[in-house]
């Protein structure tokens, strides 16, 4: 029922209201077999976090994976794809054998419009506008754990910040 209501908003080109999203999440949490659930990318706003609280959904740990915006811009804008197959290449860690060409067909690779640097920066600005207050929301409640990989300087120096963050996460949230 809730999914159909959400679909009607999306089909009309609108945003799904927070109350509906929160209701869907709560319904899923009630049917979860474990008491522990990882919500990846939700909540995204303080209003959604407040809504979870109002629904009696307790967040015991909020993780913030902090990567400098320009690093994200560089990585995402280095992503190219082969439209027919969906194969994706990343010039910094999974480059094609021949620049600009698909490894299998030799056809040209394309960059999605939303992977271009200016589009990535715009999305990150919007993300920052929403995430900074949310990070502070969970910090004030004493449930925020932030990871930026700085405790793994050898990996960060090798341009492997994601690996550094994952190495930092393991012992702290296990």
TrEMBL record:
Alphabetical list of SUPFAM superfamilies matching this protein: P-loop containing nucleoside triphosphate hydrolases
Compositionally biased region (Basic and acidic residues): 98-116
Chain positions covered by the region annotation Disordered: 91-116
Database matches in Pfam families: ADK (PF00406), ADK_lid (PF05191)
Superkingdom of origin: Eukaryota
Record flagged with keyword Kinase: yes
Keyword Ubl conjugation: no
Signal peptide: none
InterPro entries with a match to the protein in the record: Adenylat/UMP-CMP_kin, Adenylat_kinase_CS, Adenylate_kinase_lid-dom, P-loop_NTPase
GO molecular function annotation: AMP kinase activity; ATP binding
Annotated ranges, domain Adenylate kinase active site lid: 79-114
Family: Belongs to the adenylate kinase family.
PANTHER family: NUCLEOTIDE KINASE
Full protein name: Adenylate kinase active site lid domain-containing protein
Organism expressing this protein natively: Zooxanthella nutricula
């Amino acid at each position: 029922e809730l999914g159909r209501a959400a679909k009607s908003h999306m089909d009309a080109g609108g945003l799904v209201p927070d109350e509906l999203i929160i209701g869907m999440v709560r319904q899923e949490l009630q049917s979860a077999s474990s008491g522990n659930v990882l919500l990846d990318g939700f909540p995204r706003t303080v209003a959604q976090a407040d809504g979870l609280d109002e629904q009696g959904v307790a967040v015991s740990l909020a993780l913030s994976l902090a990567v400098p915006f320009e690093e994200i811009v560089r990585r995402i804008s280095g992503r190219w794809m082969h439209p027919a197959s969906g194969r994706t290449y990343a010039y910094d860690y999974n480059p094609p054998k021949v620049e600009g060409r698909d490894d299998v067909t030799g056809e040209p690779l394309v960059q999605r419009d939303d992977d271009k640097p200016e589009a990535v920066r715009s999305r990150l600005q919007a993300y920052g506008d929403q995430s900074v207050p949310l990070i502070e929301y969970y910090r004030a409640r004493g449930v925020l754990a932030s990871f930026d990989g700085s405790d793994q300087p050898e990996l960060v120096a090798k341009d492997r910040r994601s690996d550094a963050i994952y190495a930092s996460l393991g012992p702290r949230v296990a």
